[in-house]
Structures are given as structure tokens and as C-alpha cells.
Amino acid sequence: MSIENTKSSIQKWHHMLESRDMSILDELLADDVVFRSPVAYNAYPGKQVVTFILTNVIQIFENFTYHREFYTEDGQSVVLEFSANVGEKKLKGIDMIQFNEQGQIVDFEVMIRPKSGLEALAAQMGQRMAAFLPK
């Protein structure tokens, strides 16, 4: 895969967040995508749950901004540095995104600091996930 494919997908990702058109996720996510949460130990596999998580996180985050992008030499992975607010709590984090040959996201891992910002996000996402996940 070329770095151009990855950069094209990242451009679509940025457009999706700016326009709030989350339907773009259907094209960007591979069917077997895995989401690795900064809160949960176990990963969330599958397009449906990952779409749910990303759609809800972008609703929870306020003043969300990307600052820097880092690409791996093979062009298949990118790290995006961001900042946001969850209510009164400020946080910083990174999205570590891996792509397949078709330029679709296959692995999406998030790391967030400080603990207070992560806890605020976890509280809001926990309520939403409880309603979504089977009992």
C-alpha cells in the first residue's frame, strides 16, 4: 500500500470530522476493524460497534482539534495527536490508526491523558455503551 492511499483516507477522516458526516465511516472502516479503547482492556471488534463508538465519542468531545500527524515508513499506519474537552475536563490524546491495502481502517487504538479527562470520557461513554451492548 502506498502512503498516498493512507493520506487519502486521512483526508476523508478529517473531512468527516469537520462536516460531522459520520456516514463516511462506512467507507473508511474495514468489516473486521478493531477498536482499542483507552478505558477497556478488551478490544471491540467489528464495524458496527466501532461505528457506534466513534460516532458517540465525537458527540462527547468539545473543542476537538488535531495538532500533528505522524506516518510510519511503510505508509500503513498514522498517529494523530489531538486535544479536546469533556465538560470542564481537558484532555490530550493520540489516535493510532492502521490501514489495510484498500486504505480502510483495520485497527484503531486511542490513548488519552490525564486521568481526569479520561475518567470524564469513560463516564459518558460507559452510559452510551451500556445501552448499545447486549446484556
From TrEMBL:
Residue span(s) of domain SnoaL-like: 10-107
Superkingdom: Bacteria
Protein name per UniProt: Nuclear transport factor 2 family protein
